[in-house]
Amino acid sequence: MSPDPAARHQEGARHLTPARVLDVDPLLEDPKTRIVVCCGSGGVGKTTTAAALGLRAAERGRKVVVLTIDPARRLAQSMGIDSLDNTPRRVKGVDDSAGGELHAMMLDMKRTFDEIVEAHADPERAAAILGNPFYQSLSAGFAGTQEYMAMEKLGQLRARDEWDLIVVDTPPSRSALDFLDAPKRLGSFLDGKLIRVLLAPAKVGGRAGMKFLNVGMSMMTGVLGKVLGGQFLKDVQTFVAAMDSMFGGFRTRADATYKLLQAPGTAFLVVAAPERDALREAAYFVERLAAEDMPLAGLVLNRVHGSGAARLSAERALAAAENLEDPRIVDQDGGKAGVRNSPDADGSSDPLEPASQPSPESSSLEPSSSEPLPGAPDTPDGAPERSVDQLSAGLLRLHADRMHLLAREQRTRDRFTARHPEVAVTEVAALPGDVHDLAGLREIGVRLATDRPELPEAGA
């Protein structure tokens, strides 16, 4: 008899079957790997993945810094650091027997912007820029500033050549790879027509400049003044004049960091969950990275579910549950023995001795299944507490739901791997709770490296 097709499908549902399996340890141990970038949509575990990779690399002998841009600040909690800031801080409790170290930091985009100004402008001009209201708004919340400053900070860390490996936790983003686009967007803003118009009077200088502004662009600045406000427009002009000598530097550094991300020493990991929307986003990330010639190492699939009883299909579990909940004739206690041995069975007039009559002793010791057990609590309507059969049926239904989830995840993963068979994949099992310490990060690292969909048995 051939196996149930549904059972065969469920049995295979717990194993990912990509063309390639991602092997994380060789990537982390390779001294040529200097930057690992974790990217993906929000809520898929990028921060935890980045921290776990950093910890695993450090405990295997590398000096690592993890740069997070996630505003949730979960990384600090997991690493036992009260707060992260713009300065790398060493993480305590890491096994350094192999000679490695782990440092962590959180991007402070305003502080990073301030550092750029202080490093590339003389003290007087730097003070004018830092005190400018428009600069303060730009550095604190201009669209793309966070992503641009992440690129700046990555470039700074790499230029210091202090760490063997830099692990970057990118911002959660619905539009693919905003942190790659941000330098171009900010560069376009700084090189745009509006900036050149506002910069023109300052470049002409003195009274000639003011005359040029009043005569040549009075209409335009009048409109801008009404839209933006006169004081705001003045702040922008002052900012642009002070930043003029730095504009080219922004574009140059952005281009250098962009090339750094394309270099062989960089590896991108796309992080996703086995859900349709997350894997659709992951597919877009994969395609975008390929279009930008960014080196993709593979896909990390987080929160994958499994079952130790996958041979029992959802269909069989549901059938068994229904049979327990509604036994009908075939499962009645004692079958038809009572009817068969009754005086009028089959119309017979010959009375027969009733079979299997319980003795008073046995009746007092072994209550029938229709009666509640002695001392068993009653439900509010007086019915006995749920029987073992009902509890078993409930567990079977839970198992069926689990198997349906596994099958759905498998179909979603199969669609991704069919579309991108070239992408290496590793799975991380769904954990029962949040990761909040180094032990949890260490366990995530083990799962990242060994591609185990199931949690180990206790004591294994």
Automatic annotation (TrEMBL):
Disordered as annotated region, ranges: 325-387
Compositionally skewed regions (Low complexity) per UniProt: 351-373
Compositionally biased region (Basic and acidic residues): 325-334
Domain of life of the native organism: Bacteria
Domain ArsA/GET3 Anion-transporting ATPase-like: 33-304
SUPFAM superfamilies: P-loop containing nucleoside triphosphate hydrolases
GO molecular function: ATP binding; ATP hydrolysis activity
PANTHER family reported for this sequence: ANION TRANSPORTER ATPASE-RELATED, ARSENICAL PUMP-DRIVING ATPASE ARSENITE-TRANSLOCATING ATPASE
Protein name: Anion-transporting ATPase
Lineage: Bacteria, Bacillati, Actinomycetota, Actinomycetes, Kitasatosporales
